[in-house]
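debug: dumping io for the single-chain case to check the tokenizer round-trip. Nothing else runs in this session.
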Amino acid sequence: MALINLWMAQGFIPSSDVDPNKERLGNEYFMDLLWRSFFQDVQEDELGNIVNFKMHDLMHDLAQLVAGTECMIVDLSSGKLDERVRHVSHSSNFDLSWTRETSYSGADKLRSFLLLNQSPFHSMPNKLFYDTAIGRFRGLRSLSMSNSGVTMLPISISNLVHLRYLDISWNPDIKLLPNTITDLLNLQTLILTSCYNLENLPTQMEKSINLRHLDIDGCANLKQVPCGLGKLQSLQSLGKGGITISRQSCWLTELKDLNNLDGELRIVDLGHDDDATLEWKDVNLKDKQNLQSLIVEWGPESHENEGVLNDVMMLEDIKALWSLKQLMIEWYGGARFRKWMVDDLMSYLPNLVKVRLDSCFRCQHLPPLHQLAYLKDLYLGDLSNIECIIECEGVAEVRPSGCDFFPVLAQLWIVNMPNLKKWWRKEEASKELLPSIPHLSYLVILDCPNLLSMPLLPSLEKLDVYGVNEKLLSPQSSTAESSSSLCRLKKLRIGKVLKMESLSGKWLQNLTSLEFMWISDCPKLMSLSQGLSHLSSLEILGISNCKDIDFKEVDSGSSMQSKGFLNLRSMTIKEAAKPDCLPQRLEQFPNLEKLEIESCSGLVSLPESIGNLQSLQRIRIFDCRKLISLPTPVSSLTGLQELELSGCPIVMAKMPRRECIRLA
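debug: decoded output
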């Protein structure tokens, strides 16, 4: 967190014999202030790290009162500065006039100089940078020139011998940094975020022995990170993106002594031969116990090679990473994970928040991920030999006192797992006890044709199913209890359910909170159940590439049933082949505002009942070549703002050109 780094630069965080990690101590200070409401409106990233926050106006006023003249926000109109000022923030575009017109007798005592709210189109002369920051403010501990238009740093930057915090981020014209920057022996934080054109870091970076944070996120043209950084044993992070290392780089061996790393470490293209195992040992991963995120990719060839036992051995060192919040494993070649992952995962990696297991083609069993108390985000993909998600015999083994598992999981992706059949090894035949994922809000199931059941999902708000078995959405797999657990579902996407002929009314009738439904690529889908009329909150309905779809069942419903369509605002029908691919009783949708029809090859005419849609504002019809005419009641739609036709040659030939595009 930048605030903590600024505190450190000013010496506000003392050394501690109990915990020498100043960042951790600074975080305790911050959390204490947050608890006391000094800070508020905290925003966290996906791993729970604080990235944004605010200070209450009253607290800000109090802080200014306590600071007195020591801290000051200035602009171009500010005159003489009090010699007691130590920390200056400049709130407007900085230019030469400020230095000419401002006198400050205590310039050498200034400790912070921060540019705020600089215009992205502002360009600051490099001479000004020298005159102010270096020529006058030699006692600086913190200097921020973020987004200031600086194009280069002068060699004399080394004169700021006390500098500990330097931020030159978002200056895309900087291509090189002077080598003299490594003479700043007290430098702790160097922020280069989004210096897009920066090509190289200074040579001899190993001289910056106190450097703790080097942020190179968004430095897209950075050709290479110089070897020698491995000697910076205080180095903790290289930005949010962390470090990406392959076997071909010098970095793999230089990681050995960087045991204070606490950000993200990505090791790619490992391979699984004997040499890879030896190089992995050189990384000394087990001593990097502050890491928050570890991503390990063996490479796409690993599942074909006979040396996959090496992959299994490499996982052993991960168990020492107690602080790990994110673990991603890709192209792992083993059939099983290490014994510690299977038997005692919660003890070794209790803080995991995000897990991704991808392209582990040989893997036959998953670790007990359902036990992780803080797991919020789980991705399981291309695990072609996995048959069940939980290796237990039944619900009682998942949680003896009940049937919840994945206690805080919020998002789950299950992708391309063709042999997945069950959630746990022995599902109860009676289904009297169904497992529950109590806090899951988003579920994606893609290309899992053999999965036939769903757990209880009482908090689910968004569900995407594509390439699944039709039984997953049928009454046989959804008991009354399981289907009613979807009462909070708001968005539903169904696609590529190849054998589904109709939607289950029993399954649909409990989706009373559903606002959005899109069905696509279901070639055998012929009808929508009358259960659709129970979707009392539905606002958007889309059907695409379901050739044989019709609305006969919906049209046959009673007026009482049709109350479910009162909130429908938008309907889209694409790539349907039947003449009656639209509902004939459009009066069921009295609040419909948008109707879009595209590539419906059998459509000949629109229903006469369209005249009842007085809320209709937009009609868009594309590529319906058999459409003969528009019904007369269209002209009585007083709310219609736009009528757009394209690729409908018969009906367009009968209309004035201006009416084929838009009605105002």
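debug: round-trip ok. The longest helix spans residues 22-35.
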